[in-house]
Structure formats: C-alpha cells, structure tokens
Predict the structure.
Amino acid sequence: MEINFTNQDRAEVLTQALPYIRKYNGSVVVIKYGGNAMINETLKQQVMEDIVLLWLIGVKVVLVHGGGPEISDAMDMLGKKPVFIDGLRVTDSETMEIVQMVLAGKVNKNLVNLLEVNGGKAMGISGIDGRLIEAKPKKEVLGFVGKITKINIEPVIDLLEKGYIPVISTIGCDKDGNTYNINGDTAAAYIAGAIGAERLIMMTDIAGILRNKDDPSTLITSLTVDEAEMLAESEIISGGMIPKVNCCVEAIERGVKNVVIMDGRISHSILMELLTDEGAGTLVTGNN
C-alpha cells in the first residue's frame, strides 16, 4: 500500500526531531553493530544512512563492529571448522590470522567505504592501532580469545576531534605482540565507558529484553541496572541475553549514561531510537 507523505508531513517529522537533535548534538554515541543488520545488504545500507545522518547533525558516532558469520565463512573456505565453547569461538593461531584478516581487513574497510559513499567521513581502525584494546588470554582452552585489560582511548578521541566516524574492529593485543579475538559487545561497553558516551546502542536480532522470550509484545521498554539483575536472577533474562545485559551493566558502571538493546532488523531503528518519542528496544539506565 502506497503512503502519501507530503512535504508538510516531512517538515512535521523534522520539527518533532528537533529536541533530540539539540540533545545529542556534540554528544558521543557508540553503536555496536552486528547480527542480521550486518548480513542483510538492505539493512546495512539503512544503518550506514542513519549513522551518516547523525554525523551530519553533529552527533559524534563511534561504530564498533563484529563479523562472526564472515569469519565462519572464511574458515569454511579455508577448510577449517569453527569450534565454540560457551558461545565463544575457540581461536588458535591460524584462526586468529583469519579473524584479523576478516575483521580488520574485509569487514572494517567495507563499512568505511559504505559510510564514505553515503556522504560520511570515516576512518577504520582495529584494537591493535594505538594499542586501543590491550588484552590477555581469557581462558587457556579458548586460545587467543582475549579479556580486555586496558582501553587506550586516545586514537578514538583524535579521530572524533578531526571530524571522522571511527569504525573499530574488535581485535586486542598484548605487550608481547600477540593478538586476540575480543567479544564485540564487551569491547563496545569498554570503549563507550572510556570515552564517556551519552549512549551505547547494541544492535541485536531481537526486539530487546522480553518478559516472555517467545512473545515480542512483552518487550520491557526500560529498566534500571538493579531491575536487570533481578530479572536475570528470576531467569526472565536468560540464555544469550545474559551476556548482553552484563555488557549493559558494565558500560553503565564505566560511565555510560544509558544503554539501549534494540532490534537491528527494523529499518532505520537507530533514528527511531535517538530522534523519536517512542524510541526502540529496551533502555537500561543506572539506579535512581
């Protein structure tokens, strides 16, 4: 069904967005990008458009990306079978080379290119650059899967001050030159905290935190850190949502004002979250 959207309607939408444009102008927003929104080319284009629009209205956007499916595809092409323990990819030295090649090379540069094509000014870096993400082994059985020990945020600040959209692939390093595969959600939380972001947006493949995981209508639109921990204890928050909520709590404890878990499969969900009254997904805040 075709919707007639007049110039007056467009002007009304822009007027309603004005308070939010004013609120976020000059603020830092970190977006963790992955999942279906990264695989679907139409959604990817819309995400890039959203980011460039925010950048054009003065929001300092930092894009932190994953690339799990692309890594698995590359491993398959090279005849290497992915192995996971507790949802984490076992990363031997050969797999780490593939991770670095795919994340810091293919995925990162493709996103930078898309942002530039859509009118943005972007610069791609990895956690190795400027020793942005320092790490150590998380568990011996996982190989080169890293636990973050320190964030050196200066490279990101430098890029923001020069007007770039930093695009960050989540690879860490240690003082001995070893590189590590870092969980993207965790890296986004630490980076957002280190830079004192106004908001961290975590794009997922579900609507947000649900009271009933099988019923999207049970979306919880907002909750505090304490309420989130209570929901985890009562197992309303369970499975794969637990580490995401833990990252929300981590980010807030590290100084991020609030975090949103939202459905990246919805068109222009970033703009809906930041520039409309209704927002999108679940907003997690500090305790009052």
